[in-house]
# Entry
Amino acid sequence: MRAAVQHETGRDRLEVLDDVEAVGFGPGRVRIRIRATGLCHSDLSAMNGVLPQPTPFVPGHEGAGEILDVGEGVTNLKAGDRVLMCWLPACGSCPSCKRGQTHLCLAGFMNAGTPNFTRPGGDVFGFAGTGTFTEEVVVAAHCAVPIPDDVPYEIAALIGCGVTTGLGAVFNTARVEAGSSVAVIGCGGVGISVIQGARASGAAQIIAVDPVPARREAALRFGATEAVAPDGLADAKARITGGEGFDHVFEVVGKSATARTAYETTRRGGTLCIVGAGALDDALQLTMFELFFDEKRILPSLYGGGDVLRSYERTIALWRAGRIDLEGLITHRVRLDDVNDALDQMRSGTALRTCIEI
# Structure
C-alpha cells in the first residue's frame, strides 16, 4: 500500500512509499479506504517539531473515505459506509466527557503513541493517531463518523478538522454576538473558517490580518469587511474602534508574538480566542496587573471547543443552506505522488487548503 512518510523530525519533504501496511485491525476497529485528505498546518508543525509526534510517521488527520471492513463488536458501521475521520474522538466515560467537554477527552491522544502502520524498516506512526496521507488506515470505530451521501469526500475531509476548528472557535468558544467587531490574525484555511463563522454570527466588522496578499484577497471573498497586512492592524484598530480595540480577536497562527499582538488589539472586557497550535517552549507573557485591570477574557479553543459530532452536523447544515462556502476553501488539488507540492503551497501561503486525492 502507498503512503507518504516523514522519516525524522525536521525534514521538509515526505517520501511516498509503496511498502507500507496498515496494522491494528481487530475488535472495535475499522479499516478505511481514504479517498481525500486535506493538508492542515498542524501537519507541517508535526513535521518540523513544533507539535510533538513520534517518528517515522504518516502525516494527515483531515481525511474522508469509505469503510472496507469492520472488526468484531462494531455495530454502527458497515463496509461501504462513507465516513470522515475524527482525530479527537470522545470515549464517553472519562471525567471530561461526563462533564460534557468531549473535545478535552484524552483517549484520542493516547492513540498517537501506538503505531498505525508497518513497513520492512519497522513501525510507522500515524499523526494524531490517524495518518491520512495513505491509501488505507485502521482506526478505532469511533474515529469514523458517517457522512450523508450529498457531502463529497473532499468537503467531508475539511469538516474533519480545519472548518470545525474555525467555526467552533466562533460559535462554541468566543460566542460572537451580532453587531460585534472581530479581528482574525492568520487567514489560512482555519482563519478563513473563523471569518465565515463571524459572518454567519452577524459580526458587523470583520478585519482579516495576514502578510500574504492572496490570503487577504481570499478573506474578503469569504466575508471579511477589510483585510490588512500585520503592519496595518494598529491603524485599523484606531479607525474602526476609536483605539479601544475589537470585541473579539482570534489568533490563528500559534505563536506568542501574534498572541501578544492579539491581546493588545482586544478591547478591555473583550475576548481573545487562541486557535493556533503552538510550540511547547513558546511562552506568552502577560503581567498580573494587565490581567486584572483589562479584564480581557483569554479563551483557548481546541478543535472548535465543543461536541465535535454536533459541530459536524451544524457545519453540514450551514453548507447545505449556502451560509458557508466549503468548496471555495479548496484552492489546489494534487495526487498523493505530488504531496510535496501541497507542502510547498501551504508554506508559501498560496493555498488555503490543498485537497490530496488518493
Observations:
- The longest strand covers residues 29-38.
